[in-house]
Amino acid sequence: MPKVGMEPVRRKALVDAAMRVIGDHGSLTVTMSEIAKQAGVSPALAHHYFGSKEQLLIETVRVHLQRLRDSVVTALRAATTPREKLSAVIRVSFQADQFAPETIAAWLAFYAEAQRSEETRRFLVIYARRLHSNLVANLKALCPAEDAGRIAEGAAAMIDGLYIRQSLKSAPISTEASIALTEGYLTTHLNALKG
Amino acid sequence: MPKVGMEPVRRKALVDAAMRVIGDHGSLTVTMSEIAKQAGVSPALAHHYFGSKEQLLIETVRVHLQRLRDSVVTALRAATTPREKLSAVIRVSFQADQFAPETIAAWLAFYAEAQRSEETRRFLVIYARRLHSNLVANLKALCPAEDAGRIAEGAAAMIDGLYIRQSLKSAPISTEASIALTEGYLTTHLNALKG
DNA sequence: TATTTTTGATTGACTGATCAATCAATAAAA
DNA sequence: TTTTATTGATTGATCAGTCAATCAAAAATA
Protein backbone atom coordinates (compact mmCIF):
# COMPACT_ATOMS: atom_id res chain seq x y z
CA MET A 1 0.00 0.00 0.00
CA PRO A 2 2.38 2.72 1.16
CA LYS A 3 3.73 4.37 -1.93
CA VAL A 4 5.60 7.62 -2.13
CA GLY A 5 3.96 10.84 -3.33
CA MET A 6 0.61 10.20 -1.75
CA GLU A 7 0.38 13.58 -0.07
CA PRO A 8 -1.25 15.57 -2.89
CA VAL A 9 -3.59 12.65 -3.62
CA ARG A 10 -4.68 12.39 0.00
CA ARG A 11 -5.03 16.12 0.42
CA LYS A 12 -7.30 16.34 -2.58
CA ALA A 13 -9.31 13.33 -1.48
CA LEU A 14 -9.76 14.79 1.99
CA VAL A 15 -10.71 18.24 0.76
CA ASP A 16 -13.24 16.76 -1.64
CA ALA A 17 -14.56 14.46 1.05
CA ALA A 18 -14.90 17.39 3.45
CA MET A 19 -16.95 19.35 0.93
CA ARG A 20 -19.19 16.36 0.29
CA VAL A 21 -19.72 15.54 3.95
CA ILE A 22 -20.34 19.17 4.84
CA GLY A 23 -22.78 19.51 1.98
CA ASP A 24 -24.70 16.39 2.94
CA HIS A 25 -24.67 17.24 6.60
CA GLY A 26 -25.46 20.88 5.90
CA SER A 27 -23.13 21.95 8.65
CA LEU A 28 -19.52 22.22 9.70
CA THR A 29 -20.15 20.10 12.77
CA VAL A 30 -18.90 17.03 11.02
CA THR A 31 -16.30 14.74 12.49
CA MET A 32 -12.85 14.12 11.17
CA SER A 33 -13.82 10.45 11.21
CA GLU A 34 -16.66 11.05 8.80
CA ILE A 35 -14.48 13.02 6.46
CA ALA A 36 -11.65 10.54 6.64
CA LYS A 37 -14.00 7.62 6.10
CA GLN A 38 -15.50 9.34 3.06
CA ALA A 39 -11.97 9.84 1.75
CA GLY A 40 -11.12 6.20 2.47
CA VAL A 41 -8.40 6.84 5.02
CA SER A 42 -8.06 6.82 8.79
CA PRO A 43 -8.83 9.90 10.88
CA ALA A 44 -5.23 9.91 12.02
CA LEU A 45 -4.05 10.44 8.46
CA ALA A 46 -6.25 13.47 8.07
CA HIS A 47 -4.59 14.97 11.12
CA HIS A 48 -1.21 13.96 9.78
CA TYR A 49 -1.67 15.99 6.61
CA PHE A 50 -3.71 18.92 7.88
CA GLY A 51 -2.65 19.26 11.48
CA SER A 52 -6.10 20.14 12.70
CA LYS A 53 -9.71 20.01 11.72
CA GLU A 54 -9.80 23.78 11.38
CA GLN A 55 -6.95 23.75 8.88
CA LEU A 56 -8.69 21.11 6.81
CA LEU A 57 -11.86 23.17 6.71
CA ILE A 58 -9.99 26.33 5.79
CA GLU A 59 -8.18 24.47 3.06
CA THR A 60 -11.52 23.16 1.83
CA VAL A 61 -12.89 26.68 1.45
CA ARG A 62 -9.73 27.86 -0.23
CA VAL A 63 -9.64 25.05 -2.77
CA HIS A 64 -13.29 25.33 -3.68
CA LEU A 65 -13.15 29.10 -4.07
CA GLN A 66 -10.10 28.63 -6.27
CA ARG A 67 -12.04 26.23 -8.47
CA LEU A 68 -14.92 28.65 -8.67
CA ARG A 69 -12.49 31.35 -9.66
CA ASP A 70 -11.06 29.18 -12.41
CA SER A 71 -14.57 28.67 -13.78
CA VAL A 72 -15.12 32.40 -13.85
CA VAL A 73 -11.83 33.08 -15.59
CA THR A 74 -12.58 30.49 -18.25
CA ALA A 75 -16.07 31.83 -18.81
CA LEU A 76 -14.81 35.40 -19.04
CA ARG A 77 -12.25 34.39 -21.65
CA ALA A 78 -14.94 32.81 -23.77
CA ALA A 79 -17.04 35.97 -23.72
CA THR A 80 -16.14 38.96 -25.85
CA THR A 81 -18.32 42.01 -25.25
CA PRO A 82 -18.77 43.54 -21.79
CA ARG A 83 -22.42 42.56 -21.79
CA GLU A 84 -21.50 38.98 -22.62
CA LYS A 85 -18.92 38.97 -19.87
CA LEU A 86 -21.54 40.09 -17.37
CA SER A 87 -23.76 37.24 -18.48
CA ALA A 88 -20.84 34.84 -18.18
CA VAL A 89 -20.24 35.83 -14.56
CA ILE A 90 -23.91 35.32 -13.79
CA ARG A 91 -24.05 32.00 -15.57
CA VAL A 92 -21.08 30.62 -13.65
CA SER A 93 -22.64 31.70 -10.35
CA PHE A 94 -25.66 29.58 -11.05
CA GLN A 95 -24.06 26.72 -12.94
CA ALA A 96 -25.26 23.26 -12.02
CA ASP A 97 -22.55 22.14 -9.60
CA GLN A 98 -22.61 25.44 -7.75
CA PHE A 99 -26.36 25.52 -7.47
CA ALA A 100 -26.75 21.94 -6.26
CA PRO A 101 -28.42 21.77 -2.83
CA GLU A 102 -25.37 20.21 -1.14
CA THR A 103 -23.05 22.84 -2.56
CA ILE A 104 -25.32 25.62 -1.41
CA ALA A 105 -25.57 24.05 2.02
CA ALA A 106 -21.80 23.88 2.22
CA TRP A 107 -21.33 27.52 1.24
CA LEU A 108 -23.92 28.56 3.75
CA ALA A 109 -22.05 26.67 6.44
CA PHE A 110 -18.83 28.39 5.45
CA TYR A 111 -20.43 31.82 5.59
CA ALA A 112 -21.57 31.00 9.10
CA GLU A 113 -18.07 29.76 9.97
CA ALA A 114 -16.64 33.04 8.69
CA GLN A 115 -18.15 34.67 11.76
CA ARG A 116 -15.64 32.78 13.86
CA SER A 117 -12.73 31.98 11.60
CA GLU A 118 -10.84 35.04 10.44
CA GLU A 119 -9.15 33.04 7.71
CA THR A 120 -12.39 31.66 6.32
CA ARG A 121 -13.80 35.17 6.34
CA ARG A 122 -10.78 36.46 4.45
CA PHE A 123 -11.29 33.99 1.64
CA LEU A 124 -14.96 34.79 1.31
CA VAL A 125 -14.24 38.51 1.32
CA ILE A 126 -11.72 38.05 -1.47
CA TYR A 127 -14.30 36.15 -3.48
CA ALA A 128 -16.93 38.83 -2.86
CA ARG A 129 -14.53 41.56 -3.92
CA ARG A 130 -13.56 39.71 -7.07
CA LEU A 131 -17.17 39.20 -8.05
CA HIS A 132 -17.82 42.87 -7.45
CA SER A 133 -14.84 44.04 -9.44
CA ASN A 134 -15.62 41.72 -12.34
CA LEU A 135 -19.08 43.22 -12.48
CA VAL A 136 -17.88 46.80 -12.13
CA ALA A 137 -15.19 46.46 -14.76
CA ASN A 138 -17.67 45.37 -17.39
CA LEU A 139 -20.46 47.67 -16.27
CA LYS A 140 -18.19 50.65 -16.70
CA ALA A 141 -18.17 49.97 -20.41
CA LEU A 142 -21.94 50.23 -20.43
CA CYS A 143 -22.78 53.02 -18.01
CA PRO A 144 -21.21 55.86 -16.05
CA ALA A 145 -18.69 54.76 -13.45
CA GLU A 146 -20.70 56.10 -10.53
CA ASP A 147 -23.65 53.93 -11.51
CA ALA A 148 -21.52 50.86 -12.16
CA GLY A 149 -20.61 50.43 -8.48
CA ARG A 150 -24.18 50.66 -7.35
CA ILE A 151 -25.52 48.26 -9.96
CA ALA A 152 -22.74 45.81 -9.18
CA GLU A 153 -23.67 45.87 -5.48
CA GLY A 154 -27.24 45.13 -6.37
CA ALA A 155 -26.40 42.31 -8.72
CA ALA A 156 -24.00 40.70 -6.26
CA ALA A 157 -26.59 40.94 -3.51
CA MET A 158 -29.20 39.38 -5.74
CA ILE A 159 -26.95 36.46 -6.60
CA ASP A 160 -26.16 35.80 -2.95
CA GLY A 161 -29.81 36.20 -2.03
CA LEU A 162 -30.95 33.70 -4.63
CA TYR A 163 -28.54 31.22 -3.07
CA ILE A 164 -29.99 31.76 0.37
CA ARG A 165 -33.52 31.34 -0.84
CA GLN A 166 -32.47 28.21 -2.66
CA SER A 167 -31.03 26.87 0.57
CA LEU A 168 -34.48 26.75 2.13
CA LYS A 169 -35.61 24.37 -0.58
CA SER A 170 -39.16 25.68 -0.50
CA ALA A 171 -40.55 26.94 -3.76
CA PRO A 172 -37.18 26.30 -5.34
CA ILE A 173 -36.31 28.78 -8.04
CA SER A 174 -34.88 27.11 -11.11
CA THR A 175 -31.43 27.88 -12.42
CA GLU A 176 -32.98 29.52 -15.44
CA ALA A 177 -35.31 31.66 -13.36
CA SER A 178 -32.40 32.74 -11.15
CA ILE A 179 -30.34 33.71 -14.16
CA ALA A 180 -33.34 35.49 -15.67
CA LEU A 181 -33.90 37.51 -12.49
CA THR A 182 -30.30 38.63 -12.32
CA GLU A 183 -30.10 39.37 -16.03
CA GLY A 184 -33.35 41.26 -15.75
CA TYR A 185 -31.90 43.33 -12.97
CA LEU A 186 -28.89 44.33 -15.06
CA THR A 187 -30.81 44.96 -18.25
CA THR A 188 -33.54 46.98 -16.62
CA HIS A 189 -31.12 49.16 -14.69
CA LEU A 190 -28.86 49.72 -17.68
CA ASN A 191 -31.87 50.65 -19.81
CA ALA A 192 -33.16 53.00 -17.15
CA LEU A 193 -29.89 54.92 -17.34
CA LYS A 194 -30.08 55.27 -21.10
CA GLY A 195 -33.47 56.88 -20.56
CA MET B 1 -35.76 33.60 45.92
CA PRO B 2 -38.04 30.87 44.68
CA LYS B 3 -41.25 32.57 43.80
CA VAL B 4 -44.09 31.13 41.85
CA GLY B 5 -44.72 31.96 38.21
CA MET B 6 -41.11 32.14 37.14
CA GLU B 7 -41.55 29.95 34.08
CA PRO B 8 -42.44 32.66 31.53
CA VAL B 9 -39.77 34.95 32.96
CA ARG B 10 -37.08 32.28 32.68
CA ARG B 11 -38.18 31.17 29.23
CA LYS B 12 -37.94 34.70 27.93
CA ALA B 13 -34.60 35.27 29.63
CA LEU B 14 -33.20 32.06 28.14
CA VAL B 15 -34.49 32.76 24.65
CA ASP B 16 -33.04 36.27 24.75
CA ALA B 17 -29.78 34.97 26.15
CA ALA B 18 -29.60 32.34 23.43
CA MET B 19 -30.02 34.96 20.71
CA ARG B 20 -27.34 37.13 22.28
CA VAL B 21 -24.86 34.32 22.77
CA ILE B 22 -25.47 32.95 19.28
CA GLY B 23 -25.08 36.42 17.81
CA ASP B 24 -21.83 37.07 19.65
CA HIS B 25 -20.50 33.64 18.93
CA GLY B 26 -21.72 33.75 15.35
CA SER B 27 -22.67 30.12 15.53
CA LEU B 28 -25.09 27.62 17.01
CA THR B 29 -22.27 25.67 18.58
CA VAL B 30 -22.79 27.39 21.88
CA THR B 31 -23.12 25.54 25.14
CA MET B 32 -26.17 25.42 27.33
CA SER B 33 -23.87 26.62 30.10
CA GLU B 34 -23.04 29.81 28.21
CA ILE B 35 -26.68 30.51 27.48
CA ALA B 36 -27.75 29.73 31.03
CA LYS B 37 -24.97 31.86 32.47
CA GLN B 38 -25.97 34.76 30.24
CA ALA B 39 -29.53 34.33 31.46
CA GLY B 40 -28.35 34.18 35.05
CA VAL B 41 -29.54 30.66 35.80
CA SER B 42 -28.00 27.21 36.00
CA PRO B 43 -27.68 24.97 32.95
CA ALA B 44 -29.93 22.48 34.68
CA LEU B 45 -32.75 25.00 34.73
CA ALA B 46 -32.49 25.57 31.01
CA HIS B 47 -32.94 21.85 30.51
CA HIS B 48 -35.77 21.84 32.99
CA TYR B 49 -37.77 24.36 30.97
CA PHE B 50 -36.81 23.42 27.42
CA GLY B 51 -36.04 19.72 27.66
CA SER B 52 -33.17 19.92 25.22
CA LYS B 53 -30.79 22.32 23.62
CA GLU B 54 -32.46 21.79 20.26
CA GLN B 55 -35.83 22.79 21.64
CA LEU B 56 -34.37 25.96 23.12
CA LEU B 57 -32.81 26.89 19.79
CA ILE B 58 -36.03 26.21 17.90
CA GLU B 59 -37.96 28.30 20.38
CA THR B 60 -35.40 31.05 19.93
CA VAL B 61 -35.97 31.15 16.18
CA ARG B 62 -39.71 31.05 16.63
CA VAL B 63 -39.82 33.89 19.13
CA HIS B 64 -37.54 36.14 17.15
CA LEU B 65 -39.37 35.56 13.88
CA GLN B 66 -42.59 36.35 15.72
CA ARG B 67 -41.13 39.65 16.88
CA LEU B 68 -39.98 40.45 13.38
CA ARG B 69 -43.45 39.70 12.13
CA ASP B 70 -44.97 42.04 14.69
CA SER B 71 -42.67 44.81 13.47
CA VAL B 72 -43.81 44.25 9.91
CA VAL B 73 -47.48 44.25 10.85
CA THR B 74 -47.08 47.50 12.74
CA ALA B 75 -45.17 49.14 9.90
CA LEU B 76 -47.74 47.99 7.35
CA ARG B 77 -50.56 49.48 9.44
CA ALA B 78 -48.79 52.82 9.54
CA ALA B 79 -48.44 52.92 5.76
CA THR B 80 -51.39 53.74 3.54
CA THR B 81 -50.65 53.41 -0.19
CA PRO B 82 -49.31 50.19 -1.73
CA ARG B 83 -46.03 51.91 -2.58
CA GLU B 84 -45.68 53.08 1.01
CA LYS B 85 -46.39 49.61 2.25
CA LEU B 86 -43.64 48.22 0.05
CA SER B 87 -41.26 50.78 1.51
CA ALA B 88 -42.41 49.86 5.00
CA VAL B 89 -41.57 46.19 4.45
CA ILE B 90 -38.13 47.14 3.18
CA ARG B 91 -37.51 49.54 6.03
CA VAL B 92 -38.34 46.94 8.65
CA SER B 93 -36.02 44.41 7.01
CA PHE B 94 -33.13 46.77 7.44
CA GLN B 95 -34.08 48.43 10.70
CA ALA B 96 -31.29 48.91 13.19
CA ASP B 97 -31.80 45.92 15.48
CA GLN B 98 -32.24 43.55 12.54
CA PHE B 99 -29.22 44.84 10.72
CA ALA B 100 -26.88 44.75 13.72
CA PRO B 101 -23.89 42.45 13.11
CA GLU B 102 -24.83 40.09 15.95
CA THR B 103 -28.38 39.77 14.69
CA ILE B 104 -27.21 39.05 11.19
CA ALA B 105 -24.74 36.50 12.50
CA ALA B 106 -27.54 34.81 14.42
CA TRP B 107 -29.85 34.62 11.42
CA LEU B 108 -27.07 33.24 9.30
CA ALA B 109 -26.49 30.54 11.88
CA PHE B 110 -30.19 29.69 11.87
CA TYR B 111 -30.28 29.43 8.09
CA ALA B 112 -27.39 27.01 8.31
CA GLU B 113 -29.20 25.08 11.05
CA ALA B 114 -32.27 24.85 8.83
CA GLN B 115 -30.31 22.40 6.69
CA ARG B 116 -30.50 19.96 9.58
CA SER B 117 -33.50 20.92 11.64
CA GLU B 118 -36.78 20.47 9.85
CA GLU B 119 -38.57 22.63 12.40
CA THR B 120 -36.14 25.52 12.04
CA ARG B 121 -36.46 25.26 8.29
CA ARG B 122 -40.26 25.39 8.58
CA PHE B 123 -40.17 28.65 10.50
CA LEU B 124 -37.78 30.26 8.04
CA VAL B 125 -39.88 29.11 5.10
CA ILE B 126 -42.97 30.63 6.66
CA TYR B 127 -41.12 33.91 7.10
CA ALA B 128 -39.88 33.83 3.50
CA ARG B 129 -43.37 33.14 2.23
CA ARG B 130 -44.85 35.94 4.27
CA LEU B 131 -42.29 38.42 3.00
CA HIS B 132 -43.02 37.31 -0.53
CA SER B 133 -46.76 37.56 -0.18
CA ASN B 134 -46.56 40.98 1.46
CA LEU B 135 -44.55 42.17 -1.49
CA VAL B 136 -46.79 40.55 -4.08
CA ALA B 137 -50.00 41.85 -2.53
CA ASN B 138 -48.83 45.44 -2.77
CA LEU B 139 -47.08 45.06 -6.09
CA LYS B 140 -50.30 43.81 -7.65
CA ALA B 141 -51.77 47.26 -7.08
CA LEU B 142 -48.94 48.75 -9.11
CA CYS B 143 -48.31 46.31 -11.94
CA PRO B 144 -49.77 43.27 -13.69
CA ALA B 145 -50.06 40.20 -11.49
CA GLU B 146 -47.66 38.15 -13.60
CA ASP B 147 -44.93 40.72 -13.09
CA ALA B 148 -45.64 41.12 -9.37
CA GLY B 149 -44.45 37.63 -8.54
CA ARG B 150 -41.21 38.04 -10.41
CA ILE B 151 -40.41 41.44 -8.95
CA ALA B 152 -41.20 40.17 -5.46
CA GLU B 153 -38.76 37.28 -5.91
CA GLY B 154 -36.08 39.71 -6.96
CA ALA B 155 -36.69 42.09 -4.10
CA ALA B 156 -36.74 39.29 -1.53
CA ALA B 157 -33.53 37.88 -2.93
CA MET B 158 -31.90 41.28 -2.82
CA ILE B 159 -32.86 41.79 0.80
CA ASP B 160 -31.47 38.39 1.78
CA GLY B 161 -28.35 38.99 -0.26
CA LEU B 162 -27.67 42.33 1.38
CA TYR B 163 -27.79 40.55 4.71
CA ILE B 164 -25.24 37.97 3.60
CA ARG B 165 -22.90 40.59 2.28
CA GLN B 166 -23.30 42.49 5.51
CA SER B 167 -22.35 39.37 7.42
CA LEU B 168 -18.87 39.42 5.92
CA LYS B 169 -18.30 42.84 7.46
CA SER B 170 -16.04 43.94 4.64
CA ALA B 171 -17.01 47.07 2.79
CA PRO B 172 -20.11 47.22 4.95
CA ILE B 173 -23.07 48.69 3.14
CA SER B 174 -24.96 51.18 5.26
CA THR B 175 -28.58 50.74 6.19
CA GLU B 176 -29.47 53.68 3.98
CA ALA B 177 -27.55 52.29 1.02
CA SER B 178 -29.23 48.89 1.47
CA ILE B 179 -32.64 50.49 1.55
CA ALA B 180 -31.74 52.64 -1.45
CA LEU B 181 -30.64 49.60 -3.46
CA THR B 182 -33.84 47.70 -2.75
CA GLU B 183 -36.05 50.74 -3.33
CA GLY B 184 -34.14 51.38 -6.54
CA TYR B 185 -34.84 47.86 -7.65
CA LEU B 186 -38.57 48.24 -7.13
CA THR B 187 -38.82 51.69 -8.62
CA THR B 188 -36.75 50.91 -11.68
CA HIS B 189 -38.63 47.72 -12.43
CA LEU B 190 -42.04 49.29 -11.91
CA ASN B 191 -41.09 52.19 -14.17
CA ALA B 192 -39.79 49.82 -16.82
CA LEU B 193 -43.23 48.20 -16.98
CA LYS B 194 -45.00 51.50 -17.43
CA GLY B 195 -42.74 52.00 -20.42
C1' DT C 1 -53.54 32.39 63.86
C1' DA C 2 -50.15 28.76 63.96
C1' DT C 3 -48.61 24.50 61.93
C1' DT C 4 -48.13 21.14 58.47
C1' DT C 5 -48.17 19.68 53.68
C1' DT C 6 -47.57 20.30 49.03
C1' DT C 7 -45.63 22.23 45.04
C1' DG C 8 -42.68 24.92 41.98
C1' DA C 9 -38.02 26.68 41.40
C1' DT C 10 -33.44 25.76 41.51
C1' DT C 11 -28.90 23.80 41.58
C1' DG C 12 -24.46 20.94 42.31
C1' DA C 13 -22.69 16.90 41.24
C1' DC C 14 -22.55 13.30 38.20
C1' DT C 15 -22.72 10.31 33.87
C1' DG C 16 -22.15 8.84 29.34
C1' DA C 17 -21.03 9.94 24.88
C1' DT C 18 -18.50 12.20 21.53
C1' DC C 19 -14.45 13.79 19.32
C1' DA C 20 -10.16 16.20 18.25
C1' DA C 21 -5.67 15.26 18.75
C1' DT C 22 -1.54 12.31 19.89
C1' DC C 23 1.66 8.64 19.57
C1' DA C 24 3.97 4.59 19.17
C1' DA C 25 4.19 0.93 16.03
C1' DT C 26 4.26 -1.19 11.34
C1' DA C 27 5.07 -1.68 6.61
C1' DA C 28 6.80 -0.64 2.35
C1' DA C 29 9.31 1.91 -0.68
C1' DA C 30 13.85 4.43 -1.77
C1' DT D 1 18.98 2.15 6.45
C1' DT D 2 16.33 6.05 6.11
C1' DT D 3 12.14 8.06 4.84
C1' DT D 4 7.23 8.22 3.86
C1' DA D 5 2.62 6.45 4.53
C1' DT D 6 -0.49 4.65 7.50
C1' DT D 7 -3.23 3.14 11.42
C1' DG D 8 -5.05 1.28 16.07
C1' DA D 9 -5.25 2.51 20.44
C1' DT D 10 -5.53 5.96 23.69
C1' DT D 11 -6.08 10.36 26.02
C1' DG D 12 -8.10 14.49 27.63
C1' DA D 13 -11.54 17.75 27.17
C1' DT D 14 -16.01 19.14 26.38
C1' DC D 15 -20.94 18.89 26.83
C1' DA D 16 -25.79 17.54 26.81
C1' DG D 17 -28.63 15.64 29.73
C1' DT D 18 -30.04 13.48 34.48
C1' DC D 19 -31.07 13.28 39.26
C1' DA D 20 -31.48 13.69 43.92
C1' DA D 21 -31.58 17.19 47.17
C1' DT D 22 -32.73 21.95 48.87
C1' DC D 23 -35.37 25.93 49.64
C1' DA D 24 -39.10 28.91 49.94
C1' DA D 25 -43.72 30.18 48.82
C1' DA D 26 -48.50 28.80 48.87
C1' DA D 27 -52.26 26.00 50.30
C1' DA D 28 -54.43 23.22 53.50
C1' DT D 29 -55.41 22.02 58.02
C1' DA D 30 -55.84 22.37 62.87
Automatic annotation (TrEMBL), chains A, B:
Residue intervals passing through the bilayer: none
Any matching Pfam family: TetR_C_6
Domain of life: Bacteria
Domain HTH tetR-type: 8-68
DNA-binding region, residues: 31-50
InterPro entries: BetI_C (IPR039538), DNA-bd_HTH_TetR-type_CS (IPR023772), Homeodomain-like_sf (IPR009057), HTH-type_TetR-like_transc_reg (IPR050109), HTH_TetR (IPR001647), Tet_transcr_reg_TetR-rel_C_sf (IPR036271), Tscrpt_rep_BetI (IPR017757)
Keyword Hydrolase included in the entry's annotation: no
Pathway: Amine and polyamine biosynthesis; betaine biosynthesis via choline pathway [regulation]
Keywords carried by this UniProt record: DNA-binding, Repressor, Transcription, Transcription regulation
Function: Repressor involved in the biosynthesis of the osmoprotectant glycine betaine. It represses transcription of the choline transporter BetT and the genes of BetAB involved in the synthesis of glycine betaine. Repressor involved in choline regulation of the bet genes.
Protein name as annotated: HTH-type transcriptional regulator BetI
